[in-house]
Amino acid sequence: QVQLVESGGGLVQAGGSLRLSCVASGIFFSINTMGWYRQPPGEQRELVATITSGGVTDYAASVKGRFTISRDNAKNTVYLQMNSLELDDTAVYYCNADIKRIRAALRGVEYWGRGTQVTVSS
Length: 122
Prior knowledge:
Layout (H helix, E strand, L loop, with lengths): L2 E5 L2 E4 L4 E8 L4 E10 L6 E6 L5 E3 L7 E6 L4 E6 L8 E10 L8 E4 L3 E6 L1
Parallel strand pairs: 2-11
Antiparallel strand pairs: 1-3, 3-8, 4-5, 4-9, 5-6, 7-8, 9-10, 9-11
């Protein structure tokens, strides 16, 4: 069973920083794109950032220049460094990964973590 487990959320003051981590565990062949999404209170889930297996990154306009996504392929881990946090960054942050269970699979399967709460206070 493949699992994604997030950590690093918490309460932080506006202007502060947090670092989220997400580890993929279980038996699988490879991890393609990994990413972070978030769901603010009362709103829909939205993309924050993604990173391919080769390290190509993409960011939502609202976080560009403040957040940095990275990954350690040897550890099956993706990180999200969040700096200059704003009140609007308050949300549950979810890890996402496209994972090939076996070499022969034509495409990967999308997995989600359970989420970690990030609360930014004034």
